[in-house]
Amino acid sequence: MDSSLHTNLPERLGAITVKELRQSLRRTSFIYPFIFIHIFATTSILVEFQLGSNHLSSGNPAVLQWEGDKVGYFWWIAMSVCGLLMPLAGFFLMPQETDEGNHELLLLASLSRWQIVFEKFLMLWGLSLLTFVSLLPYIIIRYFIGGIEWLHELANSGTVLAVAAIIAAASLAASGFKHMAAKASVFILFLFCTLLGGGIGMIGPAMVMDLAKTSRWLVPSAIFYHLCAVVMVSSFCFIGLLVARSRLRLAVMNFEVKPSSLILIMLGVAPFIIGAIAACTCGFGSILGVLLIAYLAWNTDRTPKAPKSFPAPAPNIPLASTNPNPGILYPDQ
């Protein structure tokens, strides 16, 4: 195959992502929520100012520590639209590839299954990110007029974007299945295991930050907590994309178990594995269980490749004809 195809692969992958993003920006599934979120955001800020409410989370602000009764109406609207509603569009992305056979054409263009799924995830999460960026003026107004501390606003922003990434990965994982019952089951299983397993995985970082909240180690412990939060969200998003990737596999041997089934089984037992590691490490090493599950899921659906030490097979080229005149057939031919 021409080496220029592999050389320009990142550029072509970026072009596909931009194309998908442009098409999604023209759809009504993006336009109407985008308009409604600004109407609701303006209304919520006016209501908060009229009520004179000053919603502040107790303690030190941190991502994924969502206190529903203290975040305010504005953040509930941002979470509902950017974090939940827009990423659900992924339910309709993978059937376009599997039913119409487009993934076969993309694979022939030297794009791997992972790259196909990842560009769809970037498109989904990018829509939520663009919508959330459009809400920054409201956040600035809340800071200068409403007296909201910027650390709390930053923590809530990170929570919304993290939830958007997880919902996007869950919807892509579910969209690879044909029947609606299977889609709903996979989506619920993924969210349940992510909530439970991710919660157990964050026990250790949360304990470290709580122990250091009254000491001079507060800032390092907060950095460690948020690094672990990024690892946890990235790992479960990675597992969701692996489920979607496994549905694009063109062939499965008769003696093989479907990779998507193995990954879903592994996802179902993930809370128990993470909990066992957390118990063995007194909670402090719980994030290691999340990394272990992500590593096992990655090795479940790896395309087999021959070692580099193996010689390449001989080319299967038919022998040239010994007939001096191919247009005339001799008796022995």
TrEMBL record:
Residues 307-333 are annotated as: Disordered. The keyword Transmembrane helix applies. The chain crosses the membrane at residues 30-53, 73-94, 121-145, 157-177, 184-203, 223-244, 265-298. The keyword Repressor does not apply. It comes from the Bacteria. Keywords: Membrane, Transmembrane, Transmembrane helix. This is ABC transporter permease.
